[in-house]
Amino acid sequence: MNNPDHDRHDDPDAWQPVAPPAPRKGRGAVSNLQGRYEADRREVFDDGWQPSSDDPHDGAPALFTQVFEERAKTILTRNQSPDLPFNVSLNPYRGCEHGCIYCFARPTHSYLGLSPGLDFESRIYAKVNARELLVRELSKPSYEPEPIALGVNTDAWQPVERDLRITRGVIEVLAERQHPFAAITKSSLIERDLDLLVPMAQRRQFMAAITITTLDAGIARTLEPRAAAPARRLRTIRTLAEAGIPVGVSIAPVIPFVTEPDMERVLEACAEAGATSASYIVLRLPWEVAPLFQQWLAAHFPQRAGRVMNRVRDMRGGKDYDASFSQRMKGTGLWSDLLKQRFRQAVKRLGLNERQHGILDMSAFVGAKSAREKPQLDLF
């Protein structure tokens, strides 16, 4: 009896297994995984022309970032999620060049008919009318002010912001209107805007959080390839803290056997740099993020990929992801409980989360009526 597998191996024209995608230098995703809303289905086929090299990056050509102008219809997004500490958010960009493989916002590129993979980090949509829309929103007589979370989905200080300055324009409006906001970022570019942020912090109208997943620069280089290096983010924490801005650290995500062993060291380094608060979120793999992350594991950590995913599923009831509000941030089970204990003990030992900076002062907000009167007063 013939062995089909043996026949395929001997016949050079027979079916060959498709090689795993090659990682690209400076990019997080290793493929342009098809988005779930695309009408046409794509199938990977190995035609035998895959280049071979000892350097895994040599097999993939350079991928340049494209920036598209978008005139958005709205700029403030509201949510009613009970596990989020904010109700209103503002994101000046869609897509993020930082390329963090774990980013929960990747699936939103599917709404554009694009891939949550390489498209998400190389095809960036800039909301060029963000400032105009924010002025319009804050000027509505019906507007009720509450703190805005800046850059929750995609980093407001990602590389394209250096030239476009859309985030800078948004902050100028918030500063003029004395409207409190909080920001989270992985970018040292936030230091550029200290002239606006420091006075707001002094009026209790601004606070910041810096995301640090690991202190291992090698892991960070593939995990979040175009974000600031871990050491540079620590320096940003120190800069913000010394300027009088309340700053915390977000360890997000905690990835079992990849970044998880570093958790205590990250907390220690951030506390030493001046952070006064800390939080963490375990790895989330919604929609297309799950296969993208597993491709990344296979490319960069093949020996521990199975172990990582088994632990993730232990925290998610046997699934890659559980989206329920009670479980999506911290997970469940023994490993989740142990992680929670480790975090609490480290935070207590380091004196983090002892001072409360969570209440921002809304009393000075310049609303519609005041904004109309202010130019008249400026004439005298």
UniProtKB/TrEMBL annotation:
Keyword Secreted set for record: no
UniProt cross-references to Pfam families, sorted A to Z: Radical_SAM (PF04055)
Gene3D superfamilies linked: 3.80.30.30
Keywords (A to Z) from UniProt: Iron, Iron-sulfur, Metal-binding
Composition bias type Basic and acidic residues, residue spans: 1-12
Disordered, as annotated region: 1-33, 41-60
InterPro entries (UniProt xref): Elp3/MiaA/NifB-like_rSAM (IPR006638), MJ0683-like (IPR040086), rSAM (IPR007197), rSAM_sf (IPR058240)
Domain Radical SAM core: 82-319
NCBIfam families: rSAM_PA0069
Name assigned to this protein: PA0069 family radical SAM protein
